[in-house]
């Protein structure tokens, strides 16, 4: 009888040990998986990045060299340089960036992407490298018949479907006119000709665009300002090691003045790396 009990006891002990070992192994595998993406990048020496290539001055092609450049692009290049990594850009629309991150086609996306609570539930974000506030481009001749955001109902708002700016337009009852990674030229000409009425987007970006396309019947609306925001690099939520590594470098770039220097280069002397208060933009 004691022998039977002893065997039963031994089986129970072994079963418990087996469960504990399995749990420990699973925990170890999960930790290894969490580090895999960043470890693989360090091993291959290449960062794969999604950006639009059509968003002046964050991500666009230089008119003379046709080289991909812009504030966001140069921030990403400097980030890779300081991490001793090569960098490969893939140009795509915003919706494609998010799916490409999830599929592993790219390691992260950088394209003036606003940090929101909804996005933070699904993706990881670095510390911000840019701060701004929302503004609106309308026709200069008649202000597109818009005095405030409340006047957007029934107006044609141009943009990409899943941006935070289109969410604002949708909230105020605008008719959405959806573009797929269109150039600034197309967006702005459509407002000027009346095909659309308004573009909601970043204040700094819009100010530069209007200045560049001075021949068009467009202007930045004088009073519409909303939603102070921050832009960050977006990546898989579980890639915490990568996020920490990026944050260390971004902190260095902020402290040594690199972000300020790049900002002033692309934003006509403005320092977008500093936080902006809503009342200061009016």
TrEMBL record:
**Where does the Solute-binding protein family 3/N-terminal domain start and stop, copy by copy?**
46-270
Regarding protein family, the annotation reads: Belongs to the bacterial solute-binding protein 3 family.
Which Pfam families does this chain map to? SBP_bac_3 (PF00497)
InterPro entries linked to this entry: SBP_3_CS, Solute-binding_3/MltF_N
User: What domain of life?
Assistant: Bacteria
The protein's name: Amino acid ABC transporter substrate-binding protein
Keywords from the named record: Lipoprotein, Palmitate, Signal
Which Gene Ontology cellular component terms are annotated?
cell envelope
Where can this protein be found? Cell envelope
Q: Among its keywords, does the record have Metal-binding?
A: no
Q: Chief subcellular site?
A: other
Please name the SMART domains in this protein's record: PBPb (SM00062)
